[in-house]
Amino acid sequence: MPHRAWLVVAVAFVTIIGAAAFRTLPGLVTDPLAEDFGWSRGTIGAAVSVNLVLNGLIAPFSAALMDRFGIRRVVTGALGLIAVGVGAGVVMREAWQLLLLWGVFVGLGTGALATGFAATVTNRWFAERRGLVSGILTAAGASGQLVFLPVLSWLVVAHGWRPATATVALAALAVVPLAWLLMRDHPADVGLPLLGATEVTPPPPPVPGVARRALTVLSRAVRTGTFWLLAGSFAICGASTNGLIQTHFVPAAHDHPHHMPVTAAASLLAVIGVFDVVGTIASGWLTDRFDSRRLLAVYYALRGVSLLFLPMLLAPTVHPPMLFFIVFYGLDWVATVPPTIALCREHFGEDGPIVFGWVLASHQAGAAAVAFLGGVARDVFGTYDVVFHASGALCAAAALMVLVIRRRRAL
After folding, report:
1. Is 126 helix (H, G, I), strand (E, B) or coil?
2. Which of 112, 255, 352, 353 could form a disulfide with 78 if both were Cys (CB 3.0 to 4.6 A apart)?
3. Could you tell me the residue range of the domain that residue 137 belongs to?
4. C-alpha distances in angstroms, 184 versus 132, 190, 272?
5. Beta strands in 315-370 (DSSP E)
C-alpha cells in the first residue's frame, strides 16, 4: 500500500494548482475590465502589483506560519482568502475594491502557498526522494497555468470576465474540504514514519522565533554585496516573467495592430507552462555540473535577446518564429531558480534557504513593478514595445550582475 505521504503530496499538488488559477486571470481580463469600468491598464496593473508584492513579502514567513498553526489550517485559510478575494471581485465596481480584493486578499493567500508550503511538506513527510517531491510540487504551478488558461480564455471570450472570475474562485473553494480532510501536519499524526524512515518520530514542537530568525538572517545578508547581486538579478527575473509575460503578453498579442485572438494568445501562454516544467528539471541537472553564475548569465542573456525580438513576432496568427519564442521562453522561465538556490546555499550556508526566501521576495517586487509600469507604459505610448525592449535591456544587466558574484564554497 502506498505511503500516506504520497496522498499528502497529491493534495498539496491540487492545492497549488487551485491557487495558481488566479495567476492566469489578470492577463485575460485586462481589456474587459478596462472596457467595462474605464480603468486604465496602469490601475489594473497596480492591483497585480500589490498582489505580487504581498506574495513576495509573506513567502519568507510562510514556513513559520505553518510551524506555528499547522499546515492544514494555513492552507485552508489561504485558499479561503483566495476564494473570497477573487469571488467578491464579480460584484466590484470601484478601483479600490480591485486593489483590496485581488491585490491584498489574493496576494496574502497565494503568498502563504508559495515555496514555503512545498518545502514544509517535503521536509516533514519525506526522509528520501525530497528532490523528486520538490520538483513535483514546483511543477504544480505550471500545471495550474496549463489547466486553467484555455478554459478561462474561452469563458472570457464567450461569456465575459465575470464567469471566468467565478470559476477561479470556485476552483480555490473546491480544494478547501480536500485539504482539510486529507492534509495532515506530520506523519506521526497518523502513526507513520517519514517515507524512507523506519521509526515513527514525534512531531517537533513549534520553534519560537522562526519569524525573528528570518529577519535576523536578512539583516546579515543585506550587508553583503552577493545578496544585492542575487536579489537584483532575481528581481529582473520576476520583471521579465510574472510581471511582463504573464501579465501583459495576452493583452499585447491582442492589442492593435496584431489582434491575435485571446484564446490563441492564452494557449501560447499555456504552452510556456508545459516547457517550464522541462526547463526547470534540465536546469537542476545542469546546476549540479556547471558554474551557477555562468548558467544564470546565459539564461538572462538569451532571455534578453528574445524579448528584443518579441515585438516583431507579434501577429494576428500563430507562426513558427512565435512558436520558437514560446518554447524557448518556457524552457527559460524558471530555469533561473536552481542555480539561484545553489548560489544562496554556496554563499550563506545553513541560512541559504531563508536568504533565498528574501531573494524570492525581490523577484516578486520586480514582477510587481513591471506589472504596474507595463500598464502605465501602454497607456502613455499606446504600445507595449517599449516595455519589451526595456525588459530585454534589464536582462542583459542581470547577466552582468551574476558574473560579478565571486566563487565561494559553502562553509
Report:
1. strand
2. 112
3. 1-195
4. 20, 8, 33
5. none
